[in-house]
Structure formats: structure tokens, C-alpha cells
Amino acid sequence: MTRCLDPPSALTATMLTTYGARADAALARVLPAENQPPNDLHRAMRYAVLGGGKRLRPVLVYATGTALGTSLERLDATAAAVEIVHAYSLVHDDLPAMDDDDLRRGRPTCHVVFGEALAILAGDALQALAFEVLAHDPALRSEQGNHVEMLRTLAAACGSHGMAGGQAFDLGAVGQRLTADELERMHVYKTGALIRASVRLGALAAGCRDDTALAALDRYGHCIGLAFQIRDDIIDVEGDSAVTGKTVGKDAANAKPTYPAILGMAASHNQLTELTEAAIAALQPFGARLHELVALAHYVAERAS
């Protein structure tokens, strides 16, 4: 029987609204202006980043960093960088050579609007911009050791043991019957790596150098990253395109391995609950300081889109 979690509190909605708006403002500042040449490329970049979305990754940066004692201003560049990396990954994932999606966040995908070539360039430029934003932030340069570790953390989340590797596993898995362990590995890389990095980056931006604390936060990030993907797989079966803003049922139609397809729906719900409980348990050493991260763990498991 599927266990029930406490419903997300009003705190979650407040965080998503407040932190999300702050992330949007930071993103609008660091993205090149549309009237700056090459205009079409910059329009594509802004289209890809500023077209809505949950802003979960920057919200995790803000929630973690402020709980550990730093200011929102000190977290802006980090929050913008992780969301820019996320946006670049979506632009490339949506391409015909990858997942071939025409709809993202309720709008035509970047390549549908701007063409495949410009979408590829927009993704490339966004990835570079994320590292430029993080590297040049004056608020972080005073923490030289942590700053270098932040750059390494973000790079690792992008690479062959992160999102790129996860996408490679995903492409090779179409039509295959994966084991549960193989499916988990794919999603720990593809989806989980940047979510986990967002939590760690928030802590590092706050000046945290406690290995025990960072390990606990890594455990939390790992659990909610995998929970996020399981919930996505469930939504692809049970969701509504009008709510999700993307095509529902596409994974099954394309014979892509998912948690409901491999484990069944009931077992997928159970695993989602177990991961959420494990994420919250990882935060216990911090006491009540990380209550916003507890609320976000519930949100990840129970969201409708």
C-alpha cells in the first residue's frame, strides 16, 4: 500500500513565488540583451531561459544558502548559473536528434521557434554563460577555496557523469528493458546531478566547509533528485498536458524506460515516498534550520507538473 506524506505547506508556494521571482530578475540581468548582436542568438537564449518554469534549482540554492546564514544577494549568481545550465540542457534535450519535443512549458520548444542550428548554438552559449556568471561574481571570489569547488561542482553536474552522461544512457535505453539499478543510474545522472549540485552550491556559496554537513546535504540532494524523476515519470502517465505544459504519454509512445513501466505504478509511488522520507531524514542533524528544504522535498514528491 502506498504511504501518504504530509501535504506541502503554504511555505512552499511562498518560496516558489519569492525565490522564483528573485531568480527571474537575476537571470534577466545576466542574459545578453536581445538588441545586442548576434540578435537572433540572444533572442533564442532569452526565450529558452525566461519562458517560465518551476525554478526549483535556484530555489534550492536560495533555501540552502539562506538557512546556512548567507544573504540572498550573495546567492543570486549561483542561482542564475544553475538555472541557465538547466535551460541549456532542455534546449538540447528537446532537439529532434535527442528527445524530439515540440512543447516545453506550454510553448513551442526553442528549435521549433528558432531552428535547430540556432537552438544548438543557444544551448552552447548558455552553458558557457553559466560558468562566466559563476566565475565572475565578486561576492564569491572572496571565498577562493569554495569558489573553485563551486565551479567544479557545476562542471561535474554537466558532464559525462552528470547530465550529458544521463542523456547518453537515455538515448541508448530506448526500446530496451532496463533493470531498476540501470534506470536509477540513468536518472541520477540525467536529472539528479544538477538538483544535487544546486543544494551543494547553495551551501558552498554560504561558506560551508563542514564535510559532514555537505555529505548530509548531498544525501538530501540525491534523494530529491531521484524523487523528482520518479514523479515526472508518474506525471507522464497520470498528468494533463494543460497542467504540465508538455506532451503527456510521450515516454510510453517512444518506448522509453520509466519507473511505472519497470516497477509498476504502485511500486513507483512507494519508492517516491521512501526517497522523500530519506531526504528529510538526512536533514535531521541541522534541526529546524532547513525547514524550507523539508517543504521542498514534499513539493518534489507531490507536484502536478
How would you characterize this protein structure?
The protein has 305 residues and is mainly α. It has one domain: Farnesyl Diphosphate Synthase (Orthogonal Bundle), CATH 1.10.600.10. Helices cover 72% and strands 1% of the residues. It is built from 16 helices and two strands. Strands 1-2 form a two-stranded antiparallel ribbon. β1 and β2 form a beta hairpin. α1 packs across α3, α10 packs across α11 and α15 packs antiparallel against α16. The longest helix is centred in the C-terminal third of the chain and has 28 residues. The protein is globular. The two termini are 24 Å apart.
**Main sheet characteristics:** 2 strands, antiparallel
Output the number of helix runs. 16
Strand content: under 5%
**SSE arrangement, N to C:** HHHHEEHHHHHHHHHHHH
CATH topology: Farnesyl Diphosphate Synthase
CATH superfamily: Farnesyl Diphosphate Synthase
Low-confidence stretches: 1-7
Terminal-residue CA separation:
24 Å
Portion of residues in helices? over 70%
Short description:
Helix content is 72%, strand content 1%. By secondary structure, the chain is mainly α. Helix 8 packs antiparallel against helix 10.
